[in-house]
Design brief:
Length: 96
C-alpha cells in the first residue's frame, strides 16, 4: 500500500461482485483505508487491495454508522433503568 493508491476503474466491477453500490464508496472511506494499511507491511495485488477495501466498507456498514452516538446502538436495559425518572421529587435548587 502507498499513499497515492487509487482504486481505479476496476472498483465498479469489484463493487458489483461484492454487492456494494458504488455510491456507498466515499473518498473518506478510501482515505481511511489507505491511512490504515499504509502503516503495515502487507503486499497485495491491486485486486487484493480492492477486495480488502470493499470488505472494509461492508464491515463498516454491518456495524452501523460509527458516527452515531453509542447510546442509540445500546440494547435495552433488562432492568428498565431508562424508564425511571430520577428527577421526580427534586426541586429546582436540588433538594427533595
Amino acid at each position: 500500500m502507498f499513499a497515492e493508491w487509487d482504486p481505479g476503474t476496476d472498483l465498479e466491477t469489484h463493487a458489483k461482485l461484492n454487492g456494494i453500490p458504488v455510491h456507498e464508496i466515499t473518498q473518506e472511506a478510501i482515505g481511511e483505508f489507505i491511512s490504515y494499511w499504509i502503516t503495515r507491511n502487507d503486499e497485495l495485488t491491486h485486486s487484493g487491495w480492492l477486495h480488502k477495501l470493499l470488505q472494509s466498507i461492508k464491515a463498516t456498514k454491518m456495524r452501523g454508522n460509527p458516527k452515531t452516538p453509542h447510546r442509540q446502538n445500546k440494547p435495552p436495559s433488562l432492568h428498565h433503568f431508562d424508564d425511571i425518572d430520577y428527577t421526580f421529587g427534586v426541586t429546582e435548587d436540588g433538594k427533595f
